[in-house]
Amino acid sequence: MEIIENQDFKKVSAAELRSSGTTFENCTFEYCDFADADLSNLTFIDCRFSDCNLSLSRIFKTSFQNIKFSNCKLSGTDFSKTSDFLFEVSFDHCLLDNAIFYQKKNKGATFSDCSLTETDFTEADLSNAMFDNCNFNRAFFDRTQLKGADLSTSYNFIIDPDLNSIKKAKFSVHGLAGLLAKYDIVIK
């Protein structure tokens, strides 16, 4: 197992990354195209991804520990297959449409200015997460832990309070329709 520390990777392919090592600590990845690539069994610790494409990448047993994604495409990425050990990811200006967070624990995560269309949060633990200006169009929430989460600036969500834990979560007045959608009522 080779450990790569404190390096910057620009425009590298998944094959180049795999030949470099298996653990990356305190590294930055910029303008990398990992779309539909196999990143399985790699470990990323305290790393930053900026302007990268990880759409449909395979991340089976990949370890993401304190990872920040900025301006990245992660459409269709299945985070449910990653390692649970110290899993911690945050996103800023990212495209996460059709991503899967099934049963992932990511307490206190930050999602800022992200598109989360049809993203699956079933049984995820997002307690105390911050969702700042995020689009949840057709996102799935089922038995999701949202205790203390802040969705007050986010929109297009439909969250059933009977099926999800939302105690002390923050919503704006404009978001109430998304909490009452199952009642098929008109809110003005």
What can you see in these coordinates?
This protein has 188 residues and is mainly β. The protein is built from two helices and eleven strands.
Order of helices and strands: EEHEEEEEEEEEH
Number of strands: 11
**What share of residues is helical?**
under 10%
Please give the largest β-sheet.
Answer: 7 strands, parallel
Radius of gyration: 17 Å
* Tally of separate helices: 2
Note the overall shape.
Answer: elongated
Instruction: Tell me, rounded to a whole number, the average pLDDT.
Output: 94
End-to-end span in angstroms?
Answer: 59 Å
Structural class by sheet pairing and helices = mainly beta
Biggest sheet strand line-up? 2-4-6-8-9-10-11
Report the portion of residues in β strands.
15-25%
Poorly predicted regions are: none
List keywords for this structure.
188 residues, mainly beta, four-stranded parallel β-sheet, 2 helices, 11 strands, 6% helix
